[in-house]
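Minutes, methods subgroup
Present: GH (chair), OT, SY

1. OT presented the first of two proteins processed in the latest run. Sequence and structure tokens recorded below as shown on screen.
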Amino acid sequence: MLLDRYGLALSTSAQAARDAYVEGADCVLSAVAGPEAHFRRALEVDANFALAHAGLARALFLAAQSREARAAAATARELAARASPRERSHVNAIALSIEGKPPQALTATLDHIALFPRDAMVLAPATGVFGLIGFSGRQQREPELLEWLRGLAPHYGNDWWFLCVYAFAACECGLLDQALDLIEQSLAGNPRNAHGAHIRVHVLYEKGEGRRAADYLDTWMPGFAREGLLHCHLSWHAALLALELGDVDKAFELYRAAVHPGGSWGPPINVATDATAFLWRSELAGQPRSPALWREVQAFAVKSFPKARIAFADVHRAVACAACGDTAALEQWVSEIRACVAAGQQPAGPVVATLAEAFAAYAGGDWAGAISRFEQALPETVRIGGSRAQRDLVEHTLVAAYLKAGRVQAARERMAQRVERRPAVTVAGFSMP
């Protein structure tokens, strides 16, 4: 009987298929380029290997090749009928998310992990800020994820992948010293784990150590293939850190080379949201608006997310419309978001539309309207998904609105709360009178 890296039995008798599957799984878990090739190699050896089809489906799904991913998931379902109960459950949990059924996928994942806690390929889609829990729309999603992973920790020991996602969950709950210790252990086990590098940057950002984070990325990024799942997003982090440290030329060089539509490869949700967030934050930091760059971002967001449904993407599409001054498109988009909420298709609830309106008010110079809406939305912003670092876009804009409205004391109080969270925090472009 052949086993995967986590000691779970596999329904293939071919050692070469098993080895290729494990390599593909590790590529997925570390967000490096090439998982599809490994899974296809496994299938060349054993075409009936259900988990290799499921792994290929997951890899294709992460690469935004939705149609191919659904086809691979369907094949995995068909073949899993002849596999072990564990593998049938494994395939079902992964396939449900690919089939566009995230609530059912999360339920299936929770049930599966209760029985097979070391099934990392099933656990992985539920972790992270874009995972099944991260995009669940629940107010308490961050502590829920941390508590779940804390209970699973004894099953994984010093496994580099688990320590990585556990570190991110701790970081998002403000346990920064614990998070830093966990991520250093993870990277000691696999220094080229892109998720690990990403999470280390998040922890350093939250600790207010921007220079340290920037230096780390400068040494880690060379050699990381542009085809890697996180190349765009890590480049976004590097660009924002450069902006925060006052190196505007470097920030825009990174943006143009590896973040903006046409200059990057990445899942559409990363390109659309990261490009939007960078341009907006650059303006908050005092840089002039580039209508041409904004038009590229808006066009990409509209093409990639034509229907309101994914809260994090929906808010960023609204920001792009607002920055372009496209009032008609923005009003239509907010109406679609509200219709989505009314139809029970938006688990994050009304906060999505409130944020869209807040950014629109800010772009239109309505400081009082922006402040009112941002203050209303801020306690529930966690529901849209994304990391604390990504959601800083909201708080940064609120501080800027306070300053533009002449409410200096309110800005000071808000910044004081941020300093409490990030002891060495600096916010580029904000001059506090």
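2. SY then presented the second protein from the same run.
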Amino acid sequence: MRPLTPEILKSLEKIVGPGHLTDQETDLQCYGYDATVYHGRPEAVIFPGSAEEISAVLRLANEHRFPVVPRGAGSGMSGGSVPVQGGVVLVLNRLKRIKKIDRENFLAVVEPGVVNRDLQQAVEALGLFYPPDPASMNFSTLGGNVAECAGGARAVKYGVTRDYVLGLTAVLPTGEIMKTGVQTVKGVVGYDLTRLLVGSEGTLAVITEIILKLLPKPEARRPALAFFNQLDRAAQAVVEILHGGILPSTLEFLDQPSIQAVEDYLHLGLPREAEALLLIEVDGDREGVERQSRRVVEACERLGASGTRLARTEAEAEDLWQARRAVSPALFRLRPNKINEDIAVPRAQIPEAIRRFQEIARRFDLLIVSFGHAGDGNIHVNVMYDEKQEGQQVRARQAVEEIFKAVLALGGTLSGEHGIGLAKAAYLSWELDPVNLAVMKKIKDLLDPNGILNPGKIFPS
């Protein structure tokens, strides 16, 4: 890749207009990070205002061979928007219009810079519902959600981002503007290029418009907490609830270190001796929610829950959710540093996975805390350490590799929702067979022959 010359910078500024390009050192440093420990230094940061401007930028990048790295809110957890090879960071926050909400056809047309929560509030005001709810939904953008195929707590019932993307407008690495997908419920004309781009982590195209499927807004919701002194009993409760014909909108769990960290942080009266906490929320019509929430509590008690709590009001529901939402900030009271992995295993393997993680923690003399989405087997495994303590950071990295080995041995996957980016590129071949990996590389090379779009991501160097 080639460095940016003053002439290239002038050409870029001409494309995006005055005030929409910066090469000030403070800005370059700020846009070199995402939500991980990774950092790169771009040579310029630009803020395009249209697909046509992005097209012109990418054509210029191909001509002069400099990297272009798309960026939303920079909230990614895999290093996907970090400019590791310099070049230009392409910030999409000017493209932030909700262009259409179609109540009759249950769809929305949005630009990539729209914040997830803003869309949710806009559609719910009209009696509609957009389910994908990543933990970062208050600030992450829909373009980033699509690029990473973001999940969230409601995925157990409603699925993930790809299940709601009907179509896209995207700029290919060579500058062509392409429309994919449909605005109908069904559509099977040609290859599904929409699905190809969803989850491609900004390596195959820059998304400039998204057509999203919406649902009717559920009439009511009701969460319950259940505490178990045995992890296996909690896992059995998950299975019984699902086999009993109840599909909760969320089914979250915390392990014992998580429970203790949250209790020390917020003093909610959580039982420190519990090995597992389940947060189970059902939604739908009011009568159905009332009936199903009682059955959820009964199932947990039947399987030996040491205690249960059922919300009766919206305020009580928010109180119950405090425990789950407080986990991440509470963990930093345990250790100053962490490596957060988002593996997934088959639901029935969650107890065995937790046991293996704790054995790894003992072997490397580290604290490993697990919580996440019991309903779909997506576990957030946090390896806690203190980088100032000699050898802890090295042992933490070694522990992560052992966690990955354990997950794959249990039939799991290395990433449930955060993506590969930089963080897991070195381990891609652990999960994908050589033919699979080779086909992916061929697709990348076909669409991005000069390798200018988000280089260094997904594929190991």
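Chair's summary of item 2: The longest helix spans residues 392-409.
Next meeting: continue with the remaining queue.
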